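Quick entry, no commentary yet.
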Amino acid sequence: MKIDSRRRAWLRAGALLPLAPVSALAAAQLPVALAPPPGLTPASLAADQRYWSKVAALYDITDAVVPLENGYWGSMARPVLEAYQRDIAKVNHGNAWYGRKDFPAEAEVARSRAAAALGVELDEIVLTRGATEALQALISGYNRLSKGDVVLYADIDYDAMISAMRWLKQRRGVEVVSINLPEPATHAGVIECYAKALDSHPKLKLILLTHVNHRNGMVLPVAEISRMARERGVDVIVDTAHGFGQLDMRIPDLQADFVGINLHKWIGAPVGVGALYIKRGRVRDIDPYMGERDGDDVRTRVHTGTVNFAAYLALPLAFDLHEQIGVANKQARLHRLRNLWVEAARELDGIEVLASADPRLTSAIASFRLKGRLTLADNMALSKRLVVDHGVFTIHRDGLASGACVRVTPSVFTSEMQIERLVAALRTIGSRA
């Protein structure tokens, strides 16, 4: 095999070949016309159908149904998908030669890009395969618990995280307490619920907080609850799988030292990318992953194994596209789509809407059910009826203290006409309930 002089020198030195900056490569592939028109506020842009049609044109989405179940994961825009496909080919072509020599440095470029977008320092995050992996590492590894201490979760929290919190009884010998958040929710009512829990459990040491829950989409006032907990010496672990990317915020805004993050939901990165955040100075409060060396390197707190190389490589481009649209603009658009169907559904007989009227507690996600139909079976049948009879795809959710529901989640590619299809379906269903 012939080796050129550049590679021969590289082999002797054991160094990496020079790399083109990933973010610069990504930016060159973005459609410049996607930048929002100047001078428009997010609220005004949210109603600009022409602009959001341009955004939607970047996505190749099925027309077999009206897709209103976008909380599962977020489809990649075409530029990200094409970059991902090129990266898959590059990785496959380079094989272990690429994986051993070039990928570590390129992965660090992606991690650095993620840190900047999250508003944190590079040494405070490690990339994971998703928020679940990150949060399980944080919950299972949190080592400031003693036998008899109390940990707390709520009915809105994600199922896998609830399981991890319950497991702490076995792992750490703690008492596990759950609370049910009030419905309908108010800002003051939610904070009061956590304040009462803190008052009722003087040995409380750890709280799980879900920034935007996957059941009814309520936005938890995390910063306020975190500050309240800190004053009493209680730590919080925050699940922002549905928060970061659709809300105009960055990680320090949460006022929390431990956070699990998804990047394949609202950022539009390839499936299989998330991040774990530990505030500088708190790494040793999370145990190293099995057998990893202890110390202050956040990367020792999770061990993903062989990752999807191409998914990490496409991450900077996904961030560039996300930031070109603008997170404040995305949030305003998603809230507009949510409000279009929620406000209409509130007026329908037979329909119960599970969504706060307080804009501080609202996200893209909201839920509903038929009045009096609280079981999981009822809501599985309702979501099936929506897709079979009306061509509208949603998903049933369970776990709320008040009962099961059907979740609706639009995306930036969702049109207002599609929301009207949902409303028309609800009018028919509600009238027959």
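second:
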Amino acid sequence: MRHSLVPPAGPQRVLALAQLSNSVGDGAYYVTSALYFTHVVGLDPARVGLGLTVGWAVGSAVGVPLGRLADRRGARGTAVLLALATGLAVASFLVVRDFVPFVLAACAYASAQSGLAAARQALLAGLVSAGERTGLLAHLQATLNAGLAVGAGLGGLALHAGTRAAYLGVFAVDAVSFVGCALLLLRLPSVAPRVPRARRGPGVLRDRPYAVITLLNTVLLLRMPLLSLGIPLWIAERTAAPAWVVSALFVLNTGAVMAFQVRMARGVSGLGSATRAVRRSGWVMLAACAVFAVSAGVSPWVAAGALVVGAVLQVVAEMGQSAGSWQLSFDLAPAERVGEYQGFFGTGVTVARTLGPLVLTTLLVEWGTPGWLLLGAVTLGASYAMGPAARWAAGRGEMGGDGRGEVGGAGLVEAGATVQV
């Protein structure tokens, strides 16, 4: 793959455009949804949080069967239908007025999003050679950040207007963005359904090595709410840094991923390089946590400087860990069940988003410096454990995913898609 900021023409570029389409809508949705549900719909904030938690819990549970559906029925058709379903779910928020319909809409939205992510991973695996997947995922991650930034700007205009019509316009834009995503996905070549080998039991749920890989990746993803929750609370409660630093760190992170994620993924092309990338990211994350901890109890500008340095280290760790985990998630999945396995791997994001806020507020706000150091140490431990777990998973090819004769996949076939695309 070329290492420009734009993917090569063909399926890779179409996948990137599809990613850009719905990420613009999602960016606008993310910055306005909480105020829309509380100020316009009139729901209690606690109920909004509960409804979204229930929704993402349901979405996490259905990711695996929807991914399996993509494997069995065809990844492109499944992805198109789920993109349209996501747009319909977003549109349903426009008519929600009570708590129960809100929960149902949230479940539909999260389920369609989770299934769409798994189906598009299966589609990517069927259209892009194994050696190009991590590079393309890096492009998609950069595209995602660019789209979210644009969408956040649109959402900011709606927040500035503060009218019901402005909020409704944002949700309409998000719904239309998923229709655009579906139309773009229709331009891609179809991928033949994959017929799995005969197996017993629930597939990926019996694949213990892959489950361990997913668990370790979930631990590494606990850093996801850092920029949106952990660091803002740390700055407000434990440092003298000015409040605007929160926004500066967010812009720094987004811009760095857009500019450097593709470059960071260049050296990741197999299991060995992937585990090394994850291991290096663990050390960098430990250093980031130590620097963040230094920002407490010092002057405002020293604190701000430490926070910026910590944020630079943190985004470097994030990009390295992302590149390594993408490679592992594909290379260690059986070629005929990519959608099912990616649906399971994607549950780590949901779990991290659910548990991350509680973990980070406890460690950082309540424990302070020891909490930062513990977070860094746990991250480093999980990153080092990824190597033995990956070797265990790669070695199951002859014994099978559950160690009882089912053939697993230490590597995906060339032909046959965080970021979840």
